[in-house]
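Data availability (excerpt). The following record was deposited with the supplementary files.
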Amino acid sequence: MKPLIQQLAIVSGKGGTGKTSIAASLAKLAKKRIAVDCDVDASNMPIILPHTIIEEIPFFGEKKAFITEQCRGCGDCVIYCRFNAIKDFYTVEPMLCEGCAVCAMMCPHEAINMVDHQSGTLVVAQADSQPFLFAKMGIGEGNSGKLVTELRQKAKSIADEQDYDVIIIDGPPGIGCPVIASITGTSHVLIVTEPTIAGIHDLERIIQLTQHFRIQASVCINKCDISEQNTTLITDICNKYHIPIIGLIPYDKDFVKAQIAGKTVVEYSSGTAAKEIIKLWDTMQSILHAALIQNQND
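Predicted structure:
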């Protein structure tokens, strides 16, 4: 019987908590894994995971209006377009078109078609001789949640074909559609937070999101020593929601130095932060193993 694929999503309620640095470090420590950067609007994991691109797949997130030669210049499309996307000589500005298709429906001459529009690229690469997937979203483009879903489906397909049993997902910050697409159906969610007012506020929101979808979660406090009072508040919130804290990583300038060097913290440094991340991965492996046994029993 083929083993179940364990999917670990690393998320944060806010940006700047060190989520990507920790996610990349866990991917570096894993012996056999697929790494996926699902922060498609600002993909940063490729900066610290040296990689070789294998394939680039165009992503068509939505349709845009295109005015054909049948246009008679009546101007109805200009009147009905609420985004001012139709310019002189009746051409459509793709950056402004929202794909609502009102112009196509209202054109009396059926001169407007809704055509596929490439809004990003899905990238399949190799990092440390293992699969690494990320994406490039076009400037101002939408449907990033759909692109996240396609990324995860591609990773799952590779895992099935090549017998990988762990997928490590670096999710986007926040609690919106791309985050939901990143955590839905995962085995476990690791929430990376920091002891700041914004970190505390957004931690509670992301915990509520995971509990809404009934996904097991744990918390890692990065820069845990910059405010003892706020770290205590985070501990109280985790106790309130019965969420375990499995990582306490102190503030360490090696995070920045490692980024500048294009490396993960665990390969750049042997300092306290790197050691705590190694402990975090050991704990996470035990959690994923327990979840696997539970799923097999179910």
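Summary of structural features: The chain has eleven helices and eleven strands.
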